[in-house]
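Field log, afternoon session.

UNIT: design team B
ACTIVITY: writing a sequence onto a fixed backbone
BACKBONE:
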């Protein structure tokens, strides 16, 4: 199970990191996830003998790690969108062959003109949202504007299992219990079940 999560996270992080520079990666990732879904469905139906006994901890940890994938998208997107050689077709002149080629890319958003500035603001908004998200939800809970989903208790006014059975099934079960109790000495009903 862990290697399936590793495949999904590897695909997501790779696509989010390089997808802005190589847009064909998004359809490739979609085909990858469709393939994973179909193979998993077929394996569950025809191959696996017993499902693995995993709790929700692995899934929660994977989701917690995957929520940081947009950070790589915005960071690399800000860097790639600020490249003047790619988008503005501006290349500085090289005077000597033994000097490194200057890129005129210093990383400051106010020195850039073009698509890098929105990516910088998206990056700042994402970092603020991720850092202040838990603080915001705790403030909403303290103001009673939000509630935990774990604390919701549903009461459908249903009886126990025996009370919800139809009469003929209840009579059949009761007759089987009396027969097993009298002839075999086996009692499966507890005290008060005959009421």
């Amino acid at each position: 199970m862990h290697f399936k999560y590793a495949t999904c996270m590897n695909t997501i992080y790779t696509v989010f990191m390089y997808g802005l520079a190589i847009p064909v990666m998004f359809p490739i990732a979609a085909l990858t996830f469709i393939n994973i879904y179909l193979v998993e469905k077929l394996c569950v139906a025809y191959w696996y003998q017993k499902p693995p006994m995993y709790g929700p901890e692995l899934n929660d940890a994977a989701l917690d790690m995957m929520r940081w994938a947009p950070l790589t998208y915005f960071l690399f997107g800000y860097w790639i969108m600020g490249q003047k050689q790619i988008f503005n077709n501006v290349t500085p002149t090289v005077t000597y062959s033994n000097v490194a080629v200057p890129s005129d890319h210093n990383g400051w958003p106010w020195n850039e003109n073009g698509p890098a500035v929105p990516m910088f603001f998206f990056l700042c908004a994402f970092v603020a949202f991720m850092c202040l998200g838990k603080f915001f939800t705790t403030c909403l809970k303290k103001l009673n504007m939000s509630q935990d989903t774990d604390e919701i208790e549903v009461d459908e006014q249903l009886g126990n299992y025996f009370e919800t059975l139809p009469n003929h099934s209840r009579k059949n079960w009761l007759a089987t219990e009396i027969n097993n109790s009298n002839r075999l000495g086996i009692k499966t009903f507890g005290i008060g079940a005959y009421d």
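LOG NOTE: The longest helix spans residues 116-142.
NEXT ACTIVITY: expression trials, pending approval
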